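QUALITY CONTROL LOG
STEP: pairwise intake check
CHECKER ROLE: data steward
CRITERIA: each record must contain a sequence immediately followed by its structure tokens, with no blank fields

ENTRY 1 OF 2
RESULT FIELD BELOW
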Amino acid sequence: MNIPEYIKEYIKMLPSGVLGIAAAVFLYLALSCMLRVKGKWWQRGLLLLGCWVTSFMIIYIGDIVNLSCNMVLFLAVLWITCEGSGLKKLTLGLMFASAVFAFNAFYDNCVGLAAHFYGKDVLYADMYLVGRLWFAVFLYLAIRRRKPEPEFELSRPLWRLMLLLAFPPMGIMLSTILLRSPFYAIKGTVLSDAFLFLMVMLSFIGLLRAFAVLERQQRMERENMLVHQNKRYYEAMEQQQFEIRRIRHDLSNHLQTILSLPGQQREDYVQELLDGPAFGRVLSWCGDPTVNAVLTAKETLARQKGIRFLARVDIREGLPFDKADVCAVFANALDNAVEGCMGVGKQQREIRLEARAGKGVLAVKIRNTCPDMEAGEAKGRAADTSGRKKAGMEKAPGKGHFPKTTKKDVKNHGFGLRSIQETVKKYGGSMEIDREGQFFRLFLYLPFEQDMD
């Protein structure tokens, strides 16, 4: 059977095609370790195509066209297909591009010229695609080992700092390629060029390490801020309870004052006392005093805002957690629920709380009404502390997994769900949020050693 010549040529090209696709896939995986790729199929395909073009772009010394065009193309593809702020995509794009293009230039010029000088042109040609694949695999493993935490995000000042740090290796790579004549002496420049290109690639590893350190430091600062915030919240709650006990203790003095006042002043004084916190309803929801204090305060707040508050709490004794953490979980969750209810009419405002402690687990479920999701958004969105998506749900919109606060002072608000998440992670629990239509649901559980049954 005679096989047509063009088919034979395609068969000969098959190993090269497989190597090219493999290299593009590893570059794609390396990028996805640093940036979250958007979910549409054409966006993922476009990024894979961009990685393939970038991986096999031939970069010669003095070649302005290939380098400049591919640089612009790569950054444009990254901008279209990846999520994150503009500073994040620009910074990571320049870092990644400088490392890949530096290797391409190193391989096409320094290694190629050395192979030609020693008469190894055939070996170099046979191993050309293998070298490209090897670098893609190495880059992926290096990024996977030193990458920051998933969903990492730095503040704008830190992104600007990292962008400035990304410029020197990019400048070295560009100046070595664009400002050098293609007709240069091999012996005089090949070693210096190789050294510069290797320095650019090593600087990429250093910048990755810097990202991980900065992200970890920022996360620790945020956790400390949330801890102090939770402690202040609990101390304020304790102070309120102390004031209530003090006023009740002084009830005899109030009665004597009432007897001495004339008619209208007496009525005003009595009404002022009745409106105060001491004479509000103090409800015993469960066996944990901290939960009782929080739920009493939040039930009063909900009632004042016209929100129907329904709670079913099965906690028979004190929870074995830090009081500030218990306060943070229940108070922040209910504050967010109250805030969500304010976006709907009074007839629709409702908060349902279910909590149970037993068999080594505290489980809390809160559902509240909220405004309908905007047209075009997915019906359900969920997130958990490990970054995994709940079955059938997509991650919440915006940066990270959490919905944005509706308060005007965004800088000092919007930490409620994040505070709950940090507390959940502290005790090795799990948290899920789910929004569908006019309902927002939060579910979490915290394990503990003591069995409270």
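ENTRY 2 OF 2
RESULT FIELD BELOW
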Amino acid sequence: MIKNIAIIMGGYSSEYEISLKSGNVVYEMLNPNKFKAFRIHIFKNKWVYVDNQNAEHPVNRDDFSIVENHKKIQFHAVFNAIHGAPGENGFMQAYFELLNIPHTSCNMYQAALTFNKRDCLSVLKPFGIKMAESYYLNLGDVVDVKTIINTVGLPCFVKANKAGSSFGITKVYKPEDMQNAIDVAFKEDDEIIIESFLDGVEVSVGVITYKGEILVLPITQIISDNDFFDYKAKYLGQSKEITPAQIPEHLAERVRNTAKKVYEVLQLKGFSRSEYIFKNDEPHLLEVNTVPGLTKESILPQQAAAADISLEALFENAIEECLRQKSR
């Protein structure tokens, strides 16, 4: 039986354009002999089904159904391609779990936890996962630049705590630039994290559940043409992404083990992509993404290709995994 699959895309954050690209790649790659795919745009002001003529049809939020040709359509599963809120922070996961609709991302609690960089790092630290020194600020807190610098040093990174794709991030070299960086981060979120600069090789590691087993994908080495791996480096071609990474095997093994441990400790499922910088030959975790980019330029699809997994197989597996978990 052909399964009805809702591909949710868009979202409420600065990442919505990337999400639309990811969702459309999924839509193009799903096998029509196995799946009938529906593009569902999720925005603050509307939830709509977008048909092949780009006409919009409302989504019934009571049961997450649509009407097509006067016939009610309900979905066997949801493919989550929303980066940022509400697809990566637990909101959509909780909604689908209440409706008992299987979805391709991790569970609600794990999504909320990993989306909050500060909380995620705090949970992982007791398990021996190494990370940068950090300092936290909430909107309205008194900013003590001297204390911040004494804690994390210079240069340092000022980041929005709950944002992706390097939105709201600034590398700070001088004390007088700290306040402006904090202001930039607060435009994205009311919580920020300030971290020490780690000078080393940066890598990205995809970990997925594939055919019932946890699979660590080939590692990607990030070499940014810019000062760090910012939005332009990620999406406008201003970086080199080398897969598999050109690092010694003992370092590759170390970061593979760390990435798998993070996936297991957090009890993730579906897709994940975690970022690390090596310091003294030890991988230091930067963040964990549970709805990573799926565009043709994105890192996880590059890694899947290096593992001889096609996009069609990657996406089909994600759907089959969530359906299999529901049937347990």
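INTAKE CHECK: passed for both entries
DESCRIPTIVE NOTE, ENTRY 2: The mean pLDDT is 93.
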